[in-house]
Amino acid sequence: MRLTSFLAFGTVLFVSLNLTGCVPGPPPPPPKPKPMVNYYQQGYNDGCWTKRHAGMKKNHYLYDHYYSYRKGWNKGYNVCKPMVKPLPLPPVKPKPKPLPKI
């Protein structure tokens, strides 16, 4: 009897501890700006990186709340050139003229 109650208690404890780990917590707070950071330069670097690589690198919090980051990101995205040139399209062959009917 003692072994059975010990196993039951252990099982209940194990299950309850595992279920508490599945409860989602509050979302993490947005990143706080660091003092003395050049947000224009950071935005420029992120915008240029986005243009040169596949994928997006943008801190949406800084983009929405800091004019200098947004201005730098847009400038970097518009000025930088992609590192990989797109493949040229194959030349288009003209359609042959139909033969005249005799």
TrEMBL record:
The keyword Signal applies. Keywords: Signal. The keyword Signal applies. Residues 1-21 form the signal peptide. This is Lipoprotein. It comes from Sulfurovum zhangzhouensis.
